[in-house]
Amino acid sequence: MKRDVKQRVVARSADAAAPVRGGAETSASGGAMVAPAMALAVVVAREGDGWRVRAGGAEALATVDPSVDVALVAAAQASGARVVLELGEAAVIVGALQTARALTVDREGDVTITARAFTVTAEERAVLRSPGAFVMVAPGEVEVFANRVLTRAREVAKTLAAMIKFN
Questions:
Q1: What are the backbone dihedrals phi and psi of residue 87, each rounded to the nearest 5 degrees, phi first?
Q2: Residue ranges per structural domain of the chain
């Protein structure tokens, strides 16, 4: 596939291996810097240490660049999102296209989300922490710690348990 896809990419552009324009046009060795051929692909399956990808009707085995989180590739496979391939001697997955909104951290370090529903699933535990207080949820247990714990109810506050113990 790498040859088929690379040939298609070359055919679509005047010269897929043209020197990069705008910045320094020489490599560290002094030769012209060449832009690698790139393609978009769909991840079909995981095969051993690689991933089977499909681009332009052809399939090939691709490796994942060390800078790419393998979970990102698995998520792209599950959702059908496209991955970005760098085509050279072998196809290498160098990223994935974002196809949905993501949570972001603003310049002040705040995350704000408005959603119809918000679900967090943790296999071992989930912790919500701020200075001097935390809420920890673990299998079968919820722990709330703070200098002051406040519970409010407009109508009725219920505590249901087989036993209630106060220190």
A1: -100, 120
A2: 2-18+34-96
Across-strand partners of 82?
42
Question: Parallel, antiparallel, or unpaired for β 37-47 and 50-55?
Answer: antiparallel
Architecture of domain 2-18+34-96: Beta Barrel (2.40)
Residue 115's identity, in one-letter code, is A
Residue 61 tokens read as: 């085995």
What ranges make up the beta strands (E) of 65-148? Answer: 82-87, 91-96, 126-130, 133-138, 141-145
Residue 6 belongs to what H/E stretch?
Answer: helix 2-12
Closest by CA to 43, choosing from 77, 20, 78, is 77
Asked if 82 and 97 count as a contact pair (C-beta separation under 8 A), the reply is yes
pLDDT digits (tens, 9 = 90+) for 64-120: 999 999 999 999 999 999 999 999 889 999 999 988 888 888 888 888 888 899 999
pTM for this entry: 0.58
Residue type, 160: L
